[in-house]
Amino acid sequence: MPGFELFSDLERKEVNDVLDNGVLMRYGFDGMRKGHWKAKELESELAKTFGSSHVQLVSSGTAAVSVALASAGVGAGDEVIMPTFTFVASFEAIMMLGAIPILVDIDDTLTLDPKAVEAAITPKTKAVMVVQMCGSMGDMDALRKVCDTHNLIFVEDACQAIGGTYKGKPLGSIADIGCFSFDFVKTITCGEGGAVVTNNKDYYINADHYSDHGHDHEGNDRGAETHPFLGYNFRISELHAAVGLAQVRRLPEFIAIQKRNYTILRNALAQVPGVTFRKVPEGGEESYAFLNFFMPDAESGLKVAEAFKTNGIDVCWNYYHNNWHYIRKWDHLKELKSLFPISKEVKKGLDYLKTKTFEQSDDYISRNMSCLIKLSWTEDEVKARAEKMVNCIKEVSIL
Ligand SMILES: *Cc1c(COP(=O)(O)O)cnc(C)c1O
């Protein structure tokens, strides 16, 4: 991560194909486009990559989550269970539909604790959304069991975990419906973009129509298409899809580089007393987009973060002290600071955030360091970085 580090002639060629015929839109203009259908091609390529029957590209990962939920029928007043540790997009996408995000504790996998999910289920619960944070995954079998027992839709946000697998299946393709982001900093980038992935034909058709104003996409006269139901515009452009098409063909190359760099860092840190690693569920293989490790307590977690900063080790975060990824700093959500009125039902549904505490999540996140694995690092650079990181952690442990 991120794929933009290795932009090449391959991306340029695909974009130039689009510019050469000038059709920047993914639908219609059949005569002008000289056979170039970049979004359609990228959808087939992704379906192959994930071993899934259907892929619908959209304009962002956030849009992918909203479209996925809408396609599965989640809407006003429904509760969607999600983790405390994720990107702000998770609750944004839920609230856009008038649904209610129910945040629950994570465990040492750094995503949903199946026991916390089970405890949060109410008659209003409609879906459970696991977020495969930082290149790894939740206990998918345990979460699937909870969903099946309670007849809930199982949604998988794999925006940060493209290339990871669970029991041989690509992350993002395991739950009932999966979501990906191809924003600028993801392993595979389109600049901006996202995808909904599913084996459920109904969900797919819903996603296809909903993301393009409800268009039925029958025939080749866009003006004559009907609208079986209301939709919105979450389309990706051909220019964005073109970049992603070149990038996704390079996924195996990117994952191999991530794995090499991750392994050097992990082997070095494993030698340091007190350092432990996130749990990867049995049968899981990370995408190696991040290396996550735990310090013994919150104090040493904060000290390591400070020591890394002082010593110029960038792209490593303690998310307890970060505004983007953890509930602790999401005051705009807790105080419901919205530009427009929010429904009474959602307001009431989010009241719990004023008082609820998340001790288990606090413990894991405050002790955790999340280190991005870059694609552009040389082996020597990674080795030098590993040595510096080890020295920082040892120094903190002595103090
Ligand atoms: C990046 C990301 C998103 C949102 O994707 P955008 O394309 O930036 O809208 C959603 N969930 C997670 C976990 C992400 O990392």
Concise summary:
The protein is an alpha/beta fold and 399 residues long. The longest helix has 20 residues, at 379-398.
Layout: helices, strands, pairs:
Elements: H1 9-21, H2 38-50, E1 54-58, H3 61-71, E2 79-83, H4 89-95, E3 100-104, H5 114-120, E4 125-131, H6 140-150, E5 153-157, E6 165-166, E7 169-170, E8 177-181, E9 194-198, H7 201-210, H8 238-248, H9 251-269, E10 276-277, E11 284-285, E12 290-294, H10 298-310, E13 316-317, H11 331-334, H12 344-349, H13 359-367, E14 368-372, H14 379-398
Parallel strand pairs: 2-3, 2-4, 4-5, 5-8
Antiparallel strand pairs: 1-9, 6-7, 6-11, 8-9, 10-12, 12-14, 13-14
Helix pairs in contact: 1-8, 2-8, 3-4, 3-7, 9-14, 10-13, 10-14
Bound molecules: pyridoxal-5'-phosphate.
Pyridoxal-5'-phosphate binds at residues 60-62, 86-87, 89-90, 131, 157, 159-160, 181, 183, 194.
Please give a structural write-up:
The protein has 14 helices and 14 strands. The chain is globular, with a radius of gyration of 21 Å. The chain is 39% helix and 14% strand. The strands form 3 sheets. Strands 1-9-8-5-4-2-3 form a 7-stranded mixed beta sheet, sandwiched between helices. A 4-stranded antiparallel beta sheet has the order 10-12-14-13. The protein has a 3-stranded antiparallel beta sheet with strand order 7-6-11, with no helix packed on it. Helix 3 (61-71) crosses helix 7 (201-210). It is α/β, with parallel strands linked by helices. It has 2 domains: 3-250, 3-Layer(aba) Sandwich (Aspartate Aminotransferase, domain 2); 252-398, Aspartate Aminotransferase, domain 1 (Alpha-Beta Complex). It has helices at 9-21, 38-50, 61-71, 89-95, 114-120, 140-150, 201-210, 238-248, 251-269, 298-310, 331-334, 344-349, 359-367, 379-398; strands at 54-58, 79-83, 100-104, 125-131, 153-157, 165-166, 169-170, 177-181, 194-198, 276-277, 284-285, 290-294, 316-317, 368-372. The structure holds pyridoxal-5'-phosphate (PLP). Pyridoxal-5'-phosphate is lined by residues 60-62, 86-87, 89-90, 131, 157, 159-160, 181, 183, 194.
